[in-house]
């Protein structure tokens, strides 16, 4: 199957490079002959001449960026959309966030690739807004700027011991096994039996699953080779996934939970007392929460015979631990993590998704040699002039319009907060795209002289990685993966990425 | 299609190569081919008896913007295939390409039609449906519903995304 994909991709890739090389030279871009060669089926509307073409900029090339671009290109057949990306490679969290054992989710890349190949869409990788170009430059040159740069920081615990070695943010850990350039050197010591994952979201389950999945499965994915080697030597056999609140408040989704319960060689442990009484409230819950709670309850109280048979052969286990807030991370005389001290919480209010946790005087320690903190992401302001809601870690916006800033929009996590699956981001991006088009078509946005945008691109063209350049990286990575029996081996060094991109 | 799936699975890479050169089939998107091959891998839609080719039924999609699209659906195809093959334009539909990793091909049936669908939803399908906007008791994922000859005249609603409620007023 993987070989089919590889063949398919190479076939789509090669003719592109040969026949449709998008060169960052303005004359070529706008020459009619270049357009005729484009494989894209969308036609520019004949009503306006190229002189009237509006240009918009999208900052970030993850799902929010690409889905926004898709909507913009579809809704106005005369609009030019330039996508700016800090890294030399596109696709954001689809490449760097989605777990390597979830390749199906990455199928969205096919749609993104179609968008990028639209003759009115330009990808500028390796261009950081705020460093290589300023937000002001963009706003001066484009009718609209849509910020889609996600949530690049993580919430911190704010407890003693957080800075110890082997206390790692799940974000960095995910980056480490997914080949994020800045995380490739992360020091991860898996020479311990027990690990604690703090948080009850999908990222927490992702990192727990990667720690426990047999290497024989992981080695067939696009997991980075350095992480695979470390996981091969891993001694971790017990993972505690710990949350502040109870089973009715977990943030992970049922698919991820079911995957954990069915994980080969790993037993699921959910304490019966933690789910007691849930059977009485299950029927009143909305369906998604009801099914999730039912699965938690059944797994704790009456697991299926298939599950128990599977667990009999298990050599590892994961425990879902509720009602615990970390107070401090403990260490031994050598400064190595030895455990996490937790405050025991209780829930206030009637059983519901919205109950609050209150800390009691009780304390409890879980021994471990590795702590992965997965308590949420936050965005950072790209520019000091950007209205920013520091409390929630998002751009201050009203329905995707950045507050009091005409022509400036945001989509995806940077505006809505780092929650939800791709579907939520997709919907938000489509709506933001429609909103921008509405504002543009109703004359609410300025139309800067085209020259300004062209000059800006001239400034960055030597540095920028185009989509054609990316396709060269793509082919190189797939070829490297093939040698290892993987669908892809990501290049994790920025300079190497740039070298491969520029190889003609 | 089923016959092709059964007969050519081992020869798939060469099939893919040939298809890439075929002017007729080249219009079929690569993602489409990949979906077919992933379905083949999982053997989900292969029956032991090859279905007669070209048997088609009429299926009507009621889109969220009020459009009503009547299409010919091949018996044996799933409803995601039907929507893709008939170029019905629905934003974001089938994002994961039929691999049960999203809920973007969410469709809503009338109760009596829902009850007649031969393949009942698996836990995995229900898990993904749980993330769909506007979930109903008669919701299914299009990629998991196979067209049968009894479906002639079937009317299926394509639900709105939740954020559609946000109108672009300034």
Automatic annotation (TrEMBL), chain A:
Entry-linked Pfam families: Pyr_redox_2
Main location group: mitochondrion
Locations listed in the record: Mitochondrion
Superkingdom of origin: Eukaryota
EC numbers on record: 1.18.1.6
UniProt-annotated binding residues for NADP(+): 200-203, 244-245, 256, 420
EC top class, as a word: oxidoreductase
Database matches in InterPro entries: FAD/NAD-bd_sf (IPR036188), FAD/NAD-binding_dom (IPR023753), Ferredox_Rdtase (IPR055275), Ferredox_Rdtase_adrenod (IPR021163)
Domain FAD/NAD(P)-binding: start-end pairs: 56-218
Residues binding FAD: 64, 85, 93, 129, 413, 420-422
Alphabetical keyword list: Electron transport, FAD, Flavoprotein, Mitochondrion, NADP, Oxidoreductase, Transit peptide, Transport
Cofactor(s) listed: FAD
Reactions catalysed: 2 reduced [adrenodoxin] + NADP(+) + H(+) = 2 oxidized [adrenodoxin] + NADPH
GO MF, any single term: oxidoreductase activity
GO cellular component terms attached to this protein's record: mitochondrion
Signal peptide: none
Pathway: Steroid metabolism; cholesterol metabolism
Similarity comment: family membership: Belongs to the ferredoxin--NADP reductase type 1 family.
Protein name per Swiss-Prot or TrEMBL: NADPH:adrenodoxin oxidoreductase, mitochondrial
Organism: Candidula unifasciata
From TrEMBL, chain B:
Subcellular compartments: Mitochondrion
Cofactor(s) for this UniProt protein: [2Fe-2S] cluster
GO molecular function: 2 iron, 2 sulfur cluster binding; electron transfer activity; metal ion binding
2Fe-2S ferredoxin-type domain mapped to chain residues: 57-162
Keyword Iron-sulfur: yes
Gene Ontology CC terms: mitochondrion
Alphabetic keyword roster: 2Fe-2S, Electron transport, Iron, Iron-sulfur, Metal-binding, Mitochondrion, Transport
Annotated GO biological process: P450-containing electron transport chain
InterPro entries associated with the record: 2Fe-2S_ferredoxin-like_sf, 2Fe-2S_ferredoxin-type, Adrenodoxin-like, Adrenodoxin_Fe-S_BS, Beta-grasp_dom_sf
PROSITE patterns documented for this protein: 2FE2S_FER_2, ADX
Domain of life: Eukaryota
CDD domains membership: fer2
PANTHER family assigned to the protein according to its UniProt record, in alphabetical order: ADRENODOXIN-LIKE PROTEIN 2, MITOCHONDRIAL, FERREDOXIN/ADRENODOXIN
Family, similarity comment: Belongs to the adrenodoxin/putidaredoxin family.
Name recorded for this polypeptide: 2Fe-2S ferredoxin-type domain-containing protein
